[in-house]
TrEMBL record:
GO terms for biological process: DNA repair; kinetochore assembly. Belongs to the CENP-X/MHF2 family. The keyword DNA-binding applies. The keyword DNA repair applies. InterPro entries: CENP-X. It comes from Cylindrotheca closterium. This is Centromere protein X. Pfam families: CENP-X. Keywords: DNA damage, DNA repair, DNA-binding. GO terms for molecular function: DNA binding.
Protein backbone atom coordinates (compact mmCIF):
# COMPACT_ATOMS: atom_id res chain seq x y z
CA UNK A 1 0.00 0.00 0.00
CA UNK A 2 1.37 3.40 -1.00
CA UNK A 3 1.03 6.14 1.64
CA UNK A 4 -1.43 8.82 0.54
CA UNK A 5 1.18 11.62 0.58
CA UNK A 6 3.45 9.72 -1.81
CA UNK A 7 0.53 8.43 -3.88
CA UNK A 8 -0.74 11.97 -4.46
CA UNK A 9 2.81 13.14 -5.26
CA UNK A 10 3.23 10.54 -7.99
CA UNK A 11 0.86 12.34 -10.27
CA UNK A 12 0.90 14.32 -13.44
CA UNK A 13 3.35 17.17 -13.69
CA UNK A 14 2.47 20.64 -14.92
CA UNK A 15 2.91 19.68 -18.58
CA UNK A 16 0.52 16.74 -18.22
CA UNK A 17 3.14 14.00 -18.46
CA UNK A 18 3.12 11.31 -15.84
CA UNK A 19 5.93 11.75 -13.34
CA UNK A 20 7.03 12.64 -9.84
CA UNK A 21 5.63 15.83 -8.35
CA UNK A 22 8.15 18.69 -8.20
CA UNK A 23 7.38 19.37 -4.53
CA UNK A 24 8.21 15.76 -3.64
CA UNK A 25 11.51 16.08 -5.51
CA UNK A 26 12.32 19.27 -3.62
CA UNK A 27 11.54 17.59 -0.28
CA UNK A 28 13.79 14.65 -1.17
CA UNK A 29 16.66 16.97 -2.06
CA UNK A 30 16.14 19.04 1.10
CA UNK A 31 16.18 15.90 3.26
CA UNK A 32 19.80 15.30 2.18
CA UNK A 33 22.42 16.66 4.57
CA UNK A 34 25.68 17.59 2.83
CA UNK A 35 28.89 16.05 4.29
CA UNK A 36 30.10 19.45 5.51
CA UNK A 37 27.07 19.74 7.81
CA UNK A 38 25.34 22.48 5.82
CA UNK A 39 21.72 22.45 4.77
CA UNK A 40 20.02 22.68 1.41
CA UNK A 41 17.72 25.70 1.54
CA UNK A 42 16.41 26.71 -1.86
CA UNK A 43 15.95 24.29 -4.76
CA UNK A 44 15.55 25.81 -8.24
CA UNK A 45 12.66 24.46 -10.33
CA UNK A 46 15.05 23.25 -13.05
CA UNK A 47 16.86 21.12 -10.49
CA UNK A 48 13.59 19.71 -9.18
CA UNK A 49 12.48 18.91 -12.75
CA UNK A 50 15.75 17.10 -13.44
CA UNK A 51 15.47 15.08 -10.22
CA UNK A 52 11.82 14.29 -11.01
CA UNK A 53 12.79 12.98 -14.44
CA UNK A 54 15.63 10.90 -12.98
CA UNK A 55 13.26 9.39 -10.41
CA UNK A 56 10.67 8.67 -13.12
CA UNK A 57 13.27 6.87 -15.25
CA UNK A 58 14.49 4.95 -12.19
CA UNK A 59 10.95 3.78 -11.35
CA UNK A 60 10.19 2.79 -14.95
CA UNK A 61 13.46 0.86 -15.21
CA UNK A 62 12.78 -0.84 -11.86
CA UNK A 63 9.36 -1.92 -13.08
CA UNK A 64 10.76 -3.25 -16.36
CA UNK A 65 13.53 -5.26 -14.75
CA UNK A 66 11.32 -6.57 -11.94
CA UNK A 67 8.70 -7.66 -14.49
CA UNK A 68 11.33 -9.79 -16.25
CA UNK A 69 12.14 -11.45 -12.91
CA UNK A 70 8.41 -11.97 -12.25
CA UNK A 71 7.93 -13.56 -15.66
CA UNK A 72 10.82 -15.95 -14.99
CA UNK A 73 9.22 -16.95 -11.69
CA UNK A 74 5.81 -17.34 -13.36
CA UNK A 75 7.29 -19.73 -15.91
CA UNK A 76 8.92 -21.75 -13.13
CA UNK A 77 5.73 -21.69 -11.01
CA UNK A 78 2.87 -22.62 -13.35
CA UNK A 79 0.50 -23.03 -10.36
CA UNK A 80 -0.61 -19.39 -10.56
CA UNK A 81 -1.67 -19.72 -14.17
CA UNK A 82 1.47 -18.10 -15.55
CA UNK A 83 0.57 -14.64 -14.23
CA UNK A 84 3.56 -12.41 -13.59
CA UNK A 85 2.90 -10.33 -10.47
CA UNK A 86 5.80 -8.16 -9.33
CA UNK A 87 6.66 -8.78 -5.68
CA UNK A 88 9.17 -7.18 -3.33
CA UNK A 89 11.64 -10.04 -3.85
CA UNK A 90 11.69 -9.30 -7.59
CA UNK A 91 12.65 -5.69 -6.86
CA UNK A 92 15.27 -6.88 -4.38
CA UNK A 93 16.85 -9.08 -7.06
CA UNK A 94 17.31 -6.14 -9.45
CA UNK A 95 18.16 -3.48 -6.84
CA UNK A 96 21.94 -3.97 -6.95
CA UNK A 97 22.04 -3.74 -10.75
CA UNK A 98 19.89 -0.63 -10.69
CA UNK A 99 21.99 1.13 -8.10
CA UNK A 100 25.19 0.34 -10.01
CA UNK A 101 23.67 1.49 -13.31
CA UNK A 102 22.37 4.74 -11.83
CA UNK A 103 25.51 5.61 -9.83
Amino acid sequence: MIPSEINSSISSTMDGASGINLELSKKLIQSYTPPNGGTTKRIPNDTAKAISELLRIFVVETQARASVEAECDAVEDAANGGLANIRADHITKVAVELLLDFS
